[in-house]
């Protein structure tokens, strides 16, 4: 049977028998889908108007139950490109979207016209988006863009694709960040003591958190080194990432402090990045879990550690509306796999 099909395929390709070519283009030859469909695509894109018309019509009417398995596993780039352009059946488009090796330019083209349910499948292809960020721009050009996908695009641009931030205006520099001497520090402390007290008073400086925030950055940097517990709690929440990271890295924080900082929604993302980079910290399960659960953790970082969570925590995270959708979706998928 295989030999007979190979012989028939050779005859069609040779072009010696016009009738066989017409039958093949129309989908009437007894060939396996992996042989017939590429042949029809070749005819549909070829110069022969009659064969192109018959093949295009036949491919539009091809049984989805036949085409989808072929697109999923065996179809080459030419066939994928044809169906990406011509197909409208949701199952066929979904199959193309889920192919791990689908050419990225096809996803860029598809993104402009996908309905909302298929947009959600595409937006989960983080591997493809990292390789071809133009997918996000094409999605934004889609007149059917859903609110959910728009939110995910914003998340990706803020967290998964940090280079895109360069398009945004950079903050003005705060001036020199070198540390100051003790005399200058004392003068700075004295200057802010006249300001209104806001919150708890820190013993070493005699200042409240609000007053400490009014100190110049070099003064806060100096205070960050060797800071007592309450002072470093204030500085860990500092709006300047250099100050906050100094409070994290230049003090002996307890395990509880690291875990609390990893879960804090008041710290800068750079602090969470710094925690993840310290092997002895991220190696502690409560710290890793806190980072994943923290909505301020950069998306790519949170996703990296989701697979390490215990089954019970995956279940809980899959229901947690405070974490990004991508983290919740991944947690749910892994929970279903691990509980089996």
- Which consecutive residue ranges, at least 5 long each, have pLDDT under 50? 163-177
Summarize the amount of helix as a percent range: 55-70%
End-to-end gap = 41 Å
DSSP strand tally? 2
Question: How would you sum up the global shape?
Answer: elongated
- The succession of helices and strands, N to C, reads HHHHHHHHHHHHHEEHHHHHHHHHHH
What can be said about the biggest beta sheet? 2 strands, antiparallel
Radius of gyration based on Cα positions: 30 Å
Number of domains: 2
Tally the helices.
24
Q: Beta-strand level of the residues, as a percent range?
A: under 5%
What would the average pLDDT be, to the nearest integer?
Answer: 85
Give me the secondary-structure category: mainly alpha
Placed side by side, the strands forming the largest sheet appear as 1-2
